[in-house]
Amino acid sequence: MTPELADVLSAADATIGRGEVLEAHGDLRVGVDLGTAYTVLVVVDERGMPVAGSSRFAHVVRDGVVVDFVGACDLVAQLKTEVEGRLGRVLDSAATCYPPGVGRGEVRAVGHVVEASGMTCTALVDEPTAANSVLGLRDGAVVDVGGGTTGTAILAGGRVTATMDEPTGGTHLTLVIAGALGVSIEEAEQRKTDPSQQAALLPVIRPVLEKIGSIVAAHIDGHHVDSIHLVGGTSAFPGMPEIVGEACGVPTAVPGNPLFVTPLGVALHDARGAMPNPSIARMTG
User: Which residues contact 81 (CB under 8 A, 6 or more apart)?
Assistant: First the structure.
């Protein structure tokens, strides 16, 4: 039986957010999401339920591009070792993801980061498509608001028919908060994610949220989209779905914990025991 989305996201909070290890059923699969703000490694079982995971706030990627290759490799290797210690078993393969629209070299780089950490990279998938592997939508748009970019996948009959991506995401909110309040980037990030401060911060970051709304509106223009589903940590900011929905004129929703939707979807693409992803071999050649 396929788990309910709420149960999957609750398990993600427990494993990735709080470091718990849950009972696994069947084979395990691994997903690595190299984000502009957070890098996440998550392990799911054959049902797609999270069983272990970890994340770090780090600046090894900017707008979907790996800008610190050595740092990214070290970070993923640390997350791998940490999760292996919790599970008591070796993780030997993983899938990873990239924002739609980045170049072949950038896609190749995220795959090499996974390989350098000691795992075979079995799949490369764009972020909104990965997210929909968890959401299971047939029609509409999935919008992944990451740290550096906003990516959109258009769905029709369960198939992704178009993907787009543009700079602007959660890091831009952090920069605006830091500038407006005269605080460090680290303090601005803490304030942004503190529920007790978000209502007061909304007027400060509203222009950025409206920019994200205009990006999504441009992405869906010319496509039949009757619903928008936001994922990515920035989507959890109060007021975000209303602002995007108003900009697009389309009902907009956010799942329970949007931060972990894409990493979970990435893990579902890990073909454990498979040969290295042919797309990596082609790009390397």
Answer: none
**Per-residue pLDDT reduced to its tens digit, 71-85:** 999 999 999 999 999
* 18 closest CA partner among 265, 195, 269, 260: 260
Token output for 269: 């693409």
Range scoring the smallest mean pLDDT among 17-21, 99-103, 157-161, 167-171: 99-103
Q: Which two tokens stand for residue 253?
A: 């929703």
What are the residue ranges of helices labelled H in the chain?
Answer: 5-12, 69-87, 104-116, 127-135, 170-181, 185-192, 195-220, 240-248, 261-268, 278-284
pLDDT in tens, 164-219: 889 899 999 999 999 999 999 999 999 999 999 999 999 999 999 999 999 999 99
Domain annotation for the chain: domains and CATH numbers: 5-126+261-284 (3.30.420.40), 131-258 (3.30.420.40)
pLDDT of the residue at 272: 60
Structure tokens at 152: 């959109």
- State pTM to two decimals: 0.85
Q: Beta partners for 162?
A: 154
Work out the burial of residue 32: count CB atoms within 10 Å of its CB; fewer than 13 is exposed, 13-18 middle, 19 or more buried: buried
